[in-house]
Every structure is written in structure tokens, then in C-alpha cells.
User: Fold 2-dehydropantoate 2-reductase from Ancylobacter tetraedralis.
Amino acid sequence: MAPRIAIIGAGAVGGYIGAQLAAAGEDVTLVDGWAAHVAAVRAYGFRVDGMAPEETAAIPVTMLHESEIGRLGEGPAIDLTFIAVKSYATRHAAERIRPFLAPGALVVSAQNGINEDVIGEVVGHGRVAGLIAARIGVELDGPGHVQRMVPRGSPGIDVFRVGEPDGRLTERIEALGALLRKVDSVKVTTNLAGERWSKLAANAMRNGVSAASGLSINALDRDPALRRFGIKVAGEAIRVGERLGFALESIGPVPATLYARADEGDGAALAKVEEALLAAALATKARSDAQRPSMGQDVAKGRPTEVEEIYGLVIARAREVGVAVPANEHVRAVVREIEAGRAKPHPALLLSFASRGTDQPAHAV
Ligand SMILES: NC(=O)C1=CN([C@@H]2O[C@H](COP(=O)(O)OP(=O)(O)OC[C@H]3O[C@@H](n4cnc5c(N)ncnc54)[C@H](OP(=O)(O)O)[C@@H]3O)[C@@H](O)[C@H]2O)C=CC1
Ligand SMILES: CC(C)(CO)C(=O)C(=O)O
Assistant:
């Protein structure tokens, strides 16, 4: 029988995945806290636009406001849930869905940050899996509307990576992978921990750097100083991941460990990383010039960010293993100032650090 699917947090990621699964005939109910968004989806369907005209659709899908979540209990128990709220709202989302779960339900973190443990504390560790969205590039740019900024089916990249927290290849994780192939390309991974940390480093390179500068991903990568600053941020985070013992994956087409070597002064590694970033930034058919990471979107909308769930996590784990992460600390401080209304996004907020920081070797604390 087809699984009954609930998506808690139907913003850009949750809404996009849920709408595409509904379009593929799956039994999906979206749950979201933004009343105007729920009203728009009920009235007009979930509107999706992509980089090509054939990606435009208005998809009918069942949607509840979070105050109506009790209505999930009117049907059979939920077999599969995607949690796609911002990471700071994870525990609350898991608590809200728990009463409606079937005994063998799977609860999937479709987020950035690392949230499988928190979800497991609420619903049981045996019911949790992880989903990393690596090249989805979506933005909820108004009620009922998601814009995707990269083409559906990015060639050469697995858009989704799904895995069990303990890395086992189970039937349920293969089934999750098969389901998500209705949305985009999928890799079923035995290395969720390594994928998670590599994605955290990619988010550190992108999310706060865009939020602090006000620039899109392509604009950042076309600017030599900001590009190198981003590489430094990622390199620090990757060094922490190495010290923690993760088997790191790639960031885009480049092995993640090259970012750490680049930050340590290895010229060949830096050249490879820069070449890949610049090629992607100039290939405008592969990514819209307007694509901002989710934290850049949050700051533009005046919404709270995941600064603690990304930079706070890198910094906390860096302290455990004695790795210096000054660029990550700088980005966290700037984003906090912006969130508090004491600064406005501007590249100068990062370039002040970049001009004194990029050529310095990495030191242990
Ligand atoms: N966007 C992307 O391309 C990617 C995002 N991710 C991750 O996915 C997770 C979800 O992020 P994402 O989908 O981008 O988040 P969104 O901001 O699009 O949606 C999250 C929630 O925020 C609320 N919300 C969003 N915009 C508004 C608004 N203008 N007014 C009122 N409420 C609003 C909604 O519910 P509520 O009011 O209940 O909060 C929504 O469910 C995060 O962990 C993120 O890091 C991962 C990969 C890519
Ligand atoms: C687009 C991407 C990959 C940037 O790091 C992302 O994960 C986000 O927007 O949060």
C-alpha cells in the first residue's frame, strides 16, 4: 500500500518535495505555520516554478495549518514524515507529529544542520533517517509559491542523499530513495555522518556568507576575495570534520578535504577548488544568478536564521577537538549583529576579515 506521508514545515524544501510527490500521485499532507501560505495553496494549488518553462506547475495538495494538525488523526496513521522546518524548530515539530505516527513510521530530517538525534529523542532513535538536499536551490518567495533556482535533475550531482544514522542499507532506506526519485536524483548513502558534516561545511561556506554580504551564490563566487573567504570558512569546518573522524564526501564536484588543504596553503588544492567554484558561477544555466542560500533568504525576509545550528555547531565541535575556526566565528558574529538589527548586510562586513585572514595558516587553539 502507498505510504501516508506528512510534511511538517512546507516552506521551500518541504513544500517543493511535498508538491512534487503529490504530483506523482503520492498521498501527501503538508503542515505549515504560515496561514497565508496555507490559504494560497488551498485556493490555487502549490505553485512551483523552475529554470525551464516545463517545470512550472500548480499542484493540488492537501495542506493543514499547524493549528489544525489534529486532523491528521482523522485518517490512517502516518507512515512517513519529512521534517522540513528550520533546525531551531526541530524538537517542536517532532513533538507535534509524534501522536500521529504508525508504530513502524519513519521520520526523516530534510534539513540542514544535524538533527537526527533530537528527532530520535522525541520519536525513538529507531524511527529516524536523514535526507540531505545538495542541489535543490529553492525559495518560498510568496504564499503558495516556490521558485527553484537550479534545473530539476542536475546532471552529475545527486540532489538528494538519504541514509540511516548508523549507515545500514535497509529496505526502508532503499524505499525512501525510490520514492524521492519521483522528485529528483537520489543517492542512498551508507555514510550519513560524513555527508552531513560535508554539507554543514558547504552551508558554512554559503549560508552566512550570503546572509552577511547580501549577495547571491554566483555573485560571491565571482568575487575573488569573497570566494577565498568562503573557501576558508569551508576549509576550517572540514578540518574539524577530519579531526572528528568523519569520512568526508564532496562539496559539489570537489572532494571536501581539498577545501581544508586549500586553506592550509596548498596552491594546487586552492586552484582546483577555485576552478570548480568559478566554473559553476559562470554556468548560468546550471544555477540562477539570483540563487541565495536559505540563510540569505531569511535575512532578506527579516526572519530568524539557523546561525547557531550551522556556525554554532561548527564552533562547538571545533573546541572539542582543538581546531581554530576564526572565519566561522566571524560569520557567526556578523549574522548575529544583523539579526539583532545592529548591522545591515554588506560585503565589507566580511572583507574586513578576509583582508587580514585569508593568507594566514591554520592554527590549533
Ligand atoms: N532553501 C533551500 O534551498 C535549502 C534549504 N535547506 C534546509 O531546509 C530546511 C527548511 O528550509 P527552507 O525550506 O528553506 O525554509 P523556509 O523559510 O522556506 O520555510 C520554513 C518555514 O518558515 C516559515 N516561513 C517561511 N517564509 C515565511 C514568510 N515570508 N512569512 C511567514 N512564514 C514564513 C514557514 O512556516 P513557519 O511559520 O511555521 O515557520 C515555513 O514552513 C532548513 O533546515 C534549511 O537549511 C536545505 C537545502 C536547501
Ligand atoms: C543552497 C544550499 C546548498 C547552499 O548551501 C543550501 O543548503 C541552503 O540554501 O541552505
Residues 358-365 have pLDDT under 50 and may be disordered. The chain has two domains: 4-190, 195-357. The domain at 4-190 is CATH 3.40.50.720 (Rossmann fold).
